[in-house]
Structures are given as C-alpha cells and as structure tokens.
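tool_call: predict_structure(chain=1)
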Amino acid sequence: MAERKDPFGSYNFWVQIGDIARMEFQEASGFDSSIEVEEHREGGWNITTHKIPGMVKYSNIVLKWGVVDDVEQLETWYQQWVSGDPAAKRYGGSIVLLDRQGQERKRWNFIDAWPAKLTWPSFNAENSDLAIMTLELAHEGLKPA
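tool_result:
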C-alpha cells in the first residue's frame, strides 16, 4: 500500500531578499507566471489559427507584515528606488516553504527583484487590527529550486 503524503501548510514559510535581513512575513503571494498565446495564421489555411507560445509574464510578489521596529532595511531599499539612486540594487531571493518541524521542503527563487510599491499601514482608532505594511516586488523570473 502506498504511503500517505499530506500536503504542506501555507502558514510556515520565510522569504529571503538578497542581503536584506527581513525574513518573516505575515503573507506572501503573487507567485505565478503565464505564457502569452500568439495566434498565427498560415496562408491557405483559413479555418483555424495555430497557437504558439509568446512572452512569459510574472506577477509582482506581494509581501505583508506587521509593523515592528526593524523595517528600516526594506524602507531604505525602497527609498533608493524612489530617489533614483544609481546605487539601488536588484536582488535575487527565495520563498521557502517549511514543514511542521521547521525543515525546508520547497524553495522558489526569484530573479532581479526591485521594490515597485510600498504601502504603509492605515490607522483607525475604532478597531484593534494590526498595523500592516505591504511591499510589492517586481522581478524577472520565478523558478522552483
């Protein structure tokens, strides 16, 4: 009889972005890609088109975390891009899925990421929600390792 394999939970993960220390996020999403479909008509064959693969597109990676006092590296990195600093770097990184024992089970590597959008928290004195920041990373590829 085959051994039963349970799927991994989505709650145990960490994110590595180049040499930036921040690794624990509340949520990470946007891990998808799609291949554009190009339709090509051949002369003399007018019934249907041939479909061929076009460009590959990747969604932005979206990271969310509760505000703590160690977000300076991410904010500084974003501000370098806002100001057009020629020293602003693109970073590779990884999203790492862990099992219940905290062991790495799966890794996805992204290539040449830069911070495309930073959203600071909203505040409302009538609720007790956590202050959440959001960072979107534009990148040039995502591959399972």
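agent: Residues 90 and 112 are 5 Å apart (CA to CA). Proceeding to next step.
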